[in-house]
């Protein structure tokens, strides 16, 4: 039975019974494992270890795959919000009552019967259709930044609608999800904006024009990090830069307030090098 447990763990803790039989585990072997509590039958043809990933077990139980922003989050991509479980199913598939969002769209790439998670290409296609453009762009650029996909490969897929627009807009060199949000929101200003500019021995989040620095604090900007940030702000000031420092939640939840401050600073010429 220990060999069966190892095989299950290699499959992510949840596996189809028919696939296990194909590699040598008989029906009697699997029934015994269920009777002994080594595995749990979560669906007629699906078995799971008792400590298997909860989302994978739920997907197997419902006959769906994890996809869209749920799988994007699991891959460590930049997701602005993920309050509900997002799954995908074949078009017209019957899915039991599900406490989440089900996508029935035809997948860009075929799904293997053993898979409980969508390939990244399917994830991005569903994110494009499901999420607002800006939120989807952060996911796409995060996937490009991590090297999970590339623009050339995506361009050869049968993408439609908003996915084609994202393909044009996505920047593979975007440094963070915040960059994906802030740059498009400020382009209308018509001034040079350099993300991750190196000034006074450190990177700054954005340099607007010649002298205006925009810094965005995350939850880690406390303690020693805060002291270091304050010291760098002072060094920037002494070198003739002006610094606007805002919080991550301000950018996500109160962009009009952030934009108002930036516009006033640009209107006062604080982004220009002194004559």
Question: Could you explain how this protein is built, in words?
Answer:
The structure is a single chain. This protein has 275 residues and is α+β, with helices and mostly antiparallel strands. The chain contains 13 helices and ten strands. The protein has helices spanning 2-10, 17-22, 27-35, 54-62, 68-74, 120-130, 133-145, 151-155, 162-169, 177-186, 224-238, 248-253, 255-267; strands at 14-16, 40-43, 46-48, 65-66, 85-88, 100-103, 193-199, 202-208, 212-217, 242-247. The strands form three sheets. Strands 7-8-9-10 form a four-stranded mixed sheet, sandwiched between helices. Helix 6 (120-130) runs antiparallel to helix 7, helix 7 crosses helix 9 (162-169) and helix 7 (133-145) crosses helix 10 (177-186). The mean pLDDT is 89.
Describe, in short, the structure shown.
The chain has 275 residues and is α+β, with helices and mostly antiparallel strands.
Mean pLDDT across residues: 89
Number of helices: 13
Number of strands: 10
Structural class: alpha+beta
User: Whole-Å distance between the termini?
Assistant: 78 Å
- Give start-end ranges of low-pLDDT stretches: none
- Into which percentage range does the β-strand content fall? 15-25%
Which radius of gyration do the C-alpha atoms yield? 24 Å
| Shape assignment | elongated
Q: Spell the H/E element sequence.
A: HEHHEEHEHEEHHHHHEEEHEHH
The strands making up the biggest β-sheet line up spatially as 7-8-9-10
Number of domains: 3
Biggest beta-sheet profile: 4 strands, mixed
Q: Fraction of residues in helices?
A: 40-55%
